[in-house]
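Tip: read the tokens left to right.
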């Protein structure tokens, strides 16, 4: 079988499958979502570890159980006799009876100077991933996307100094009341840029020239799933445009699973790893069910008596 994507979800799935004595190829293009981050947090026993180190350890583990690691980009999946054909960009195609896709998502960032340059350093997105590291510091939240007010309210748990920059959004009276009650300051006006000095965030500058000093700013990027392999195969999507999966990651196409951020925009690293494990177990059960059904057919065929030969017909005497 083929696992596409060697992040936490894909490697976790590959580990379960190889330990179940399955032949597994893991294809990965080497573009992890968390590459800009220096450390990962909230992953039990690996808190503070560099993301690249976690992936390297995972690759070594699955290779140790016999997985074949392929450093390439999978660019197409198509039905094939007894399974699927997974084509590699500029290379051959692999055949597999089952496919698990864990190709993640990409973060579409606000188009403001300073955001991309500081992304993963002091421009952040997840309070549970990064809030502890910037606790008690002056924090900002960039508005303009749904959920910004809720994020500002949430961040008040980590710092007494939180400012919501409305930017292109209009803060309603109800939202402002909630922010005031929580002790979150609101700054109206369009943001021009995030200013920096010596490679560090200095503050948030508005179009009218005002600048508010901040040491970290949280933004809400638009998540874009890397699901072209799945949609190209005909996997159904939900009303929001994301690939529809069941609790184990099973898609609408028999034999295809999707796990991690490609199917769940909210999945954190540890969540994705757990989803990969659950999907691998479900996938393996599905494979065993198929093999058992085939074995039953062979057994029944072997037990079926061969038809008796037809009696010889004697030619009439001449």
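Filled-in amino acids:
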């Amino acid at each position: 079988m083929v696992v596409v994507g060697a992040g936490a979800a894909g490697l976790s799935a590959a580990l379960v499958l190889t330990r179940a004595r399955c032949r597994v190829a893991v294809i990965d293009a080497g573009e992890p979502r968390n590459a800009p981050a220096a450390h990962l947090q909230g992953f039990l026993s690996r808190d503070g570890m560099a993301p690249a180190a976690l992936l390297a350890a995972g690759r070594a583990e699955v290779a140790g159980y016999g997985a074949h690691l392929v450093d390439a980009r999978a660019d197409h999946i198509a039905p094939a006799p007894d399974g699927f054909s997974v084509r590699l960009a500029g290379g051959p195609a692999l055949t597999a009876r089952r496919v698990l896709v864990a190709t993640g998502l990409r973060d579409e960032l606000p188009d403001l100077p300073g955001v991309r340059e500081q992304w993963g350093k002091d421009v952040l997105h997840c309070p549970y991933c990064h809030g502890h590291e910037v606790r008690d510091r002056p924090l900002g939240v960039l508005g303009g996307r749904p959920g910004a007010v809720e994020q500002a309210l949430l961040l008040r748990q980590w710092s007494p100094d939180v400012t919501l920059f409305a930017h292109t959004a209009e803060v309603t009276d109800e939202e402002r009341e909630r922010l005031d009650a929580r002790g979150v300051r609101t700054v109206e006006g369009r943001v021009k840029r995030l200013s920096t000095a010596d490679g560090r965030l200095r503050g948030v500058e508005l179009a009218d020239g005002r600048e508010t000093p901040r040491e970290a700013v949280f933004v809400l990027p638009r998540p874009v799933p890397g699901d072209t392999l799945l949609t190209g195969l005909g996997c159904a999507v939900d009303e929001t445009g994301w690939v529809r999966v069941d609790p184990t990651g099973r898609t609408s196409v028999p034999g295809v699973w999707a796990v991690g951020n490609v199917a769940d925009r909210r999945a954190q690293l540890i969540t994705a790893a757990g989803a990969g494990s659950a999907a691998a177990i479900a996938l393996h059960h599905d494979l065993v069910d198929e093999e058992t059904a085939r074995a039953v057919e062979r057994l029944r065929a072997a037990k079926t008596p061969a038809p008796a030969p037809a009696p010889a017909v004697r030619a009439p005497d001449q």
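The mean pLDDT is 95. The two ends are 67 Å apart (CA to CA).
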